[in-house]
Design a protein that fits this description.
about 15% strand; 4 strands; globular
């Protein structure tokens, strides 16, 4: 997601093209708790400049300050060490009830994007949320107040492929 927005800034600044290539191997960090919903994936996207102002990325919202890193993630330090590996510190973990925190953020994002872009929900032609799981994709759709028909949902086909999920969903 970060690469997509940074690339769009380069495209607009240079009036050129930017190629994004991404891959993720969640199978290497998925514990038994998460293994059934994850997948390995790779994707690429080419962003190109256009003079047509109705096309392109109209707004973006990135919010990550690391304040919840103790609640979820892969806690092992790099480079990998045997002690951390034996304690399964290279597997994705969650601690406590993070659902409320995550859901609050997902509800906030569409409102913020509408405000930044000046667009309304009836002007959205496709909603492509991060492909985490069905519940979060449906929450994104409801929070964005868009019709189900314009929702892009690939998680059933590919699983959660981590950071590459967004590019896979663009296909």
């Amino acid at each position: 997601i970060y690469a997509l927005f940074i690339a769009s800034q380069f495209v607009n600044a240079t009036k050129g093209n930017v190629l994004i290539v991404s891959a993720e191997t969640l199978s290497k960090v998925a514990s038994e708790k998460f293994y059934y919903i994850t997948g390995d994936g790779g994707a690429a996207a080419l962003l190109s400049y256009t003079k047509n102002k109705s096309k392109g990325i109209h707004a973006y919202y990135l919010d990550s300050d690391g304040s919840y890193s103790d609640k979820m993630g892969v806690p092992g330090n790099l480079p990998p060490v045997a002690d951390s590996s034996s304690k399964q510190k290279y597997l994705f973990q969650t601690h406590g009830n993070i659902s409320n925190i995550i859901e609050a953020q997902w509800k906030k994002i569409p409102k913020t994007l509408y405000k930044l872009s000046g667009l309304r929900s009836d002007k959205i032609k496709a909603l492509i949320p991060h492909q985490v799981n069905k519940k979060m994709i449906e929450l994104a759709q409801k929070s964005a107040k868009v019709k189900r028909e314009i929702l892009v949902d690939k998680v059933g086909e590919y699983g959660n492929c981590g950071q590459v999920s967004m590019l896979i969903a663009l296909h």
